[in-house]
Amino acid sequence: MLKPEEKIIRHRDLNWLSFNERVLQEAQDKSTPLYERLKFLAIFSTNLDEYFRVRVSQLRQMKRVEKSLRKKLALKPNKTVKEILQEVKNQQERFGKIYREEIIPELETAGIFLVHREDYSDRQEEFSRKYFNKISECIKPVVVDYEEGGDLFLENNQLYFVVTFAYEDNFAVVNIPTDECGRFITFTSEEGRHQITFLDDILKVNIPQLFPDKEIDGIFEIKLSRDAELYIDDEIDGLLAEKIYDSLKQRTEGQPTRLLYDAKMPVEDQRILRKVLKLGKIDMMPGGRYHNFGDFFSFPDPTNNPALHYEELIPVKHKILETADDYFKVISEKDQSVHFPYMSFNYVERFLQQAANDKGVREIKISIYRIADESVLTSALLTALKNGKNVTVFIEAKARFDEKNNIDWGRKFEDEGAIVIYSYPKIKVHSKILLVTREENNEIKNYAYIGTGNFNSKTSKIYCDHALFTAHEKITAELSRVFNVLEGELIIPRAKRLLISPFSTRKAFTDMINREIQNAQLGKKAAITAKMNSLEDQEIIDLLYEASEAGVKIRLLVRGFTCLVPGLEKISENIFMTSIVDRFLEHGRIYIFENDGNEEIFFGSADWMTRNLDRRIEVIAPIYDEEIAQEFKDILNIQLNDNVKARIQDPLEKNEFVTPKPGDKRIRSQYEIYNYLKEKHEA
């Protein structure tokens, strides 16, 4: 255990690697179906790609800050990057070992064989030649001079071969066109053996055709990651969406952050490649023979064997919403909660469809962070416009990696007559809120939806989120003021119930934590239970340490990275933290304060991160309905007692699993929650 005088704040980027380690653990878990383990390898890989494009890139930018200023701010980007690269190297080695020594043999046991080029049969060689000729228009070789470098440009996260030649002062780069051709090619099955090969290997066999006059010395796969940030002048207001749209090319042409290369590439060839691409040693990352393991999301299963996949979970039917003909009536009578992916996103879509066609509905307002492609939700909004409803859509133009799709949809809504508002230069809108204004008996009534997840039917099937439908007059009135802020009508929204970032959330959480501290000091009941994605804000962490020292029992469930160190003697010994990585991505945020027995429970879109408290529009809502509050508490309690997929977050970051005591029931919380909701709603 760390001593009290040692560092008590973790570096977020180093601790994030501990989270990705948990993903790697899932890939190694033999109780998980084989193809799902492959997907965890894919998740690990895509996570790491984004990490280098965003977080490592940001550290590199810090290196440009004047040294004296870096010292003053206690910034040590060089040291941090070196620690990151060492840990990533260790994880990559584990990744390769899991893939080669566990996944591949188990695929073969299932009758699925990955065939490499050196093992091709004559028949497969012939197949590869025909296939290569069929896709030859997609192959674009470029010969590069050692000294001049030429016009070589490698696209972000695309695969290439470096082809070296004997007795030549140049080399070639050959693209691997996975976007056009897919990554995996299935050979004809032979004797019950299902044989699959990489597109990479088909190209390797045939690359000599591209250079008939040269003696090929080596063929090595590479992949370059580029900075994902868009450097836009945030000081200039105005058409931010247009600036972002026009700047998207910067992402594909951004500064290199990592070159992943086949570790078998000779050192001299590495040096030449570095020189041509103008990279530093720190940018070079040795890897295996193949890169872009994110492609394993689409790895084919020619056996169609259900045992290799998760069993489908049929969505739980909500006891009220499933059969309700009039959502306005049932929501008016009582708040309704939904939980994804255990329940269907269709309830949200049906609510919007009804609003779009209801004669009494006057206005629909919605904030969208990551919009899906063509969907029931987007169709419902377009229907509302055709039916003469006033529709206001707030679209976050800075939702990383979804900028183009979001802006494209904004233009479509504008073309159909919607009021579309894009994000402000220095603040993101991360709240997941919907407000419907309806005329009833010559009076105006508001209906609201507040959630922790995006308005996206696809992600709702894999993200664990919570949402509330309510007609509570005070809540809907305050939510209306949030939309007024988004529309530029108010500077600070009046709110006594909702926690609204960046206006009141920090103060509200600070006050509630301080209240628990005071209660503990007075010998009253004091406890904090919180579930979130990430925990990073220094002020909140310091308050939690203070609460722990005062005797407040603090139970945290944090899926991703955390800068708080639990279990430190005299500092955080009253803080216990776990993390769950399982079939679905834990994405909900729930906060419970004991308040001397008068419990208060909140949920919403904000983590305890500085950006969520100070630089984003977020909405955290109280839960007043006693039945729903109990439902949220039951769900959270199930997760806090997980002893199958929960890992203990300790000072040494060992990621050890919570283990059941002798005689204890095994609790895999995601399945327990499904069964809990099924029993409650379908009994």
TrEMBL record:
<feature type="binding site">
    <location>
        <position position="370"/>
    </location>
    <ligand>
        <name>Mg(2+)</name>
    </ligand>
</feature>
<dbReference type="GO" id="GO:0005524">
    <property type="term" value="F:ATP binding"/>
</dbReference>
<feature type="binding site">
    <location>
        <position position="587"/>
    </location>
    <ligand>
        <name>ATP</name>
    </ligand>
</feature>
<dbReference type="InterPro" id="IPR036830">
    <property type="entry name" value="PP_kinase_middle_dom_sf"/>
</dbReference>
<comment type="function">
    <text>Catalyzes the reversible transfer of the terminal phosphate of ATP to form a long-chain polyphosphate (polyP).</text>
</comment>
<feature type="domain" description="PLD phosphodiesterase">
    <location>
        <begin position="425"/>
        <end position="459"/>
    </location>
</feature>
<keyword id="KW-0067">ATP-binding</keyword>
<dbReference type="InterPro" id="IPR036832">
    <property type="entry name" value="PPK_N_dom_sf"/>
</dbReference>
<keyword id="KW-0597">Phosphoprotein</keyword>
<dbReference type="GO" id="GO:0009358">
    <property type="term" value="C:polyphosphate kinase complex"/>
</dbReference>
<keyword id="KW-0808">Transferase</keyword>
<dbReference type="InterPro" id="IPR025198">
    <property type="entry name" value="PPK_N_dom"/>
</dbReference>
<protein>
    <recommendedName>
        <fullName>Polyphosphate kinase</fullName>
        <ecNumber>2.7.4.1</ecNumber>
    </recommendedName>
</protein>
<feature type="binding site">
    <location>
        <position position="559"/>
    </location>
    <ligand>
        <name>ATP</name>
    </ligand>
</feature>
<dbReference type="InterPro" id="IPR041108">
    <property type="entry name" value="PP_kinase_C_1"/>
</dbReference>
<feature type="binding site">
    <location>
        <position position="47"/>
    </location>
    <ligand>
        <name>ATP</name>
    </ligand>
</feature>
<dbReference type="Pfam" id="PF13089">
    <property type="entry name" value="PP_kinase_N"/>
</dbReference>
<dbReference type="GO" id="GO:0006799">
    <property type="term" value="P:polyphosphate biosynthetic process"/>
</dbReference>
<feature type="binding site">
    <location>
        <position position="400"/>
    </location>
    <ligand>
        <name>Mg(2+)</name>
    </ligand>
</feature>
<dbReference type="InterPro" id="IPR024953">
    <property type="entry name" value="PP_kinase_middle"/>
</dbReference>
<dbReference type="GO" id="GO:0046872">
    <property type="term" value="F:metal ion binding"/>
</dbReference>
<keyword id="KW-0547">Nucleotide-binding</keyword>
<feature type="binding site">
    <location>
        <position position="463"/>
    </location>
    <ligand>
        <name>ATP</name>
    </ligand>
</feature>
<dbReference type="InterPro" id="IPR001736">
    <property type="entry name" value="PLipase_D/transphosphatidylase"/>
</dbReference>
<dbReference type="Pfam" id="PF17941">
    <property type="entry name" value="PP_kinase_C_1"/>
</dbReference>
<dbReference type="Pfam" id="PF13090">
    <property type="entry name" value="PP_kinase_C"/>
</dbReference>
<keyword id="KW-0479">Metal-binding</keyword>
<dbReference type="GO" id="GO:0008976">
    <property type="term" value="F:polyphosphate kinase activity"/>
</dbReference>
<keyword id="KW-0460">Magnesium</keyword>
<feature type="active site" description="Phosphohistidine intermediate">
    <location>
        <position position="430"/>
    </location>
</feature>
<dbReference type="InterPro" id="IPR025200">
    <property type="entry name" value="PPK_C_dom2"/>
</dbReference>
<dbReference type="Pfam" id="PF02503">
    <property type="entry name" value="PP_kinase"/>
</dbReference>
<comment type="similarity">
    <text>Belongs to the polyphosphate kinase 1 (PPK1) family.</text>
</comment>
<keyword id="KW-0418">Kinase</keyword>
<dbReference type="InterPro" id="IPR003414">
    <property type="entry name" value="PP_kinase"/>
</dbReference>
